[in-house]
């Protein structure tokens, strides 16, 4: 089985992957900043669990969006 390297990928696919990674990173940063600025009463669940989940789970942006929609009061 041959492994594909980054340079073997089509340049358009590389651009799509970089854009998606940038969007996910931006969402994670925005969610973490918002989480840090809110009081405990304004967050559904614990802030620690939200922060760990946002940082460690690779969710293609789903978890930060879930935080913005369901994790805040």
The ordered H/E elements are HHH
Taking the sheet with the most strands, its summary is:
none
Strand content: under 5%
Summarize model confidence as the mean pLDDT.
90
Number of helices: 3
Q: What is the count of distinct domains? A: 1
Low-confidence stretches: none
Oligomer: single chain
What's the helical proportion of residues?
55-70%
Outline: elongated
Structural class: mainly alpha
Distance between the termini: 50 Å
Radius of gyration over all CA atoms, rounded: 16 Å
Would you report the number of β strands?
Answer: 0
Task: Describe it.
This protein has 73 residues and is an all-alpha fold. The termini are far apart. α1 (11-37) runs antiparallel to α2 (47-56) and α1 (11-37) runs parallel beside α3. The protein is 63% helix and 0% strand. It has helices at 11-37, 47-56, 62-70. The mean pLDDT is 90.
State the main characteristics.
73 residues; mainly alpha; elongated
Short synopsis of the structure:
The chain has 73 residues and is mostly helical. Helix content is 63%, strand content 0%. The protein has helices at 11-37, 47-56, 62-70.
């Amino acid at each position: 089985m041959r492994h594909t390297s980054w340079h073997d990928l089509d340049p358009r696919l590389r651009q799509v992957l970089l854009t998606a990674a940038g969007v996910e990173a931006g969402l994670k940063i925005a969610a973490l900043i918002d989480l840090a600025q809110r009081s405990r009463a304004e967050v559904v669940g614990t802030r620690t669990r939200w922060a760990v989940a946002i940082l460690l789970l690779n969710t293609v942006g789903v978890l930060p969006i879930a935080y913005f929609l369901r994790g805040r009061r």
